[in-house]
Amino acid sequence: MQKILSQNFFDRDPVTVCQELLGKFLVIKKKWGIYRYMITDIEAYNGQEDEACHARHGKTERNAPMFGLPGHWYVYMIYGMYYMLNIVTWPWTHPSAILIRWVSEYPGPGKVTKNLWIDKKFNGKIANEKTGLRIEDSGHKISNIKTSPRIGIDYASDERKHKHWRFFI
DNA sequence: ACGATGATGAAC
DNA sequence: TTCATCATCGTA
Predict the structure, then answer these.
(1) Pick from A3, A74, A78, A83: CA 20 to 30 A from residue A112's CA?
(2) How far is the CA of A73 from the C1' of C5 (A)?
(3) Please, are residues A92 and A69 in contact by the beta-carbon 8 Å criterion?
(4) Number of CB atoms found within 10 A of residue A76's CB
(5) CA of A125: how far to CAs of A21, A109, A122, A166, A167, in Å?
(6) Nearest to residue A123, comparing CAs of A78, A85, A81, A82?
(7) What pLDDT tens digit does each residue of chain A (169 aa) get?
(8) 3-class SS of residue A102
């Protein structure tokens, strides 16, 4: 039996959470079974002062989940085609989240949501057994963590653009 | 290198 | 109400 990560796990700085989140399992419940995928590539979006973060202009209808409780999902549509899956970290006073870019065999944030049929029905929902989408401890110890600048945020300032807030295996 | 495709948010 | 932009991806 695997341990479902609690809200406490996510109630921290997203950069710190990122390093512990690698190697854990994204778990989705379908009508016909439960599926687990290892989380292998993620990015931290860290507060209103982070110009790459959707929270940079304050609370809006779209980014509202980031201004809510940690351990909840933030799902939004991009380019009219793809849903991006994020898990909220830290409390509403410091809106932040982690984008899930790769899990197991699905390399790319759009591919993760497309293949797992994740859409806005999970937006704002808590990550637990009840909502059908959660994160479990895998017991795997990850040692070779790589980092890089975040992808697709050229609009941010140099200072933010260059931060190594992407973590991957 | 580029187009698909629509939600978002800021400006008008 | 309009318009540029966008945490992407498949095709070429």
Answers:
(1) A3
(2) 24
(3) yes
(4) 15
(5) 19, 19, 5, 24, 24
(6) A85
(7) 679 898 999 999 999 999 999 999 999 999 999 999 999 999 999 999 999 999 999 999 999 999 999 999 999 999 999 999 999 999 888 999 999 999 999 999 999 999 999 999 999 999 999 999 999 998 888 989 999 999 999 888 888 888 999 999 9
(8) strand
Closest nucleotide C1' to the C-alpha of A54: C7
The domain segmentation of chain A, as residue ranges, is 7-168
Number of residues in chain A? 169
Nucleotides of B under 7 A from a protein CB: 4-10
Amino acid at A85: L
Which residue is nearest nucleotide B10, judged by alpha carbon to C1' distance? Answer: A57
State whether CATH 3.10.300.10 applies to domain A7-168: yes
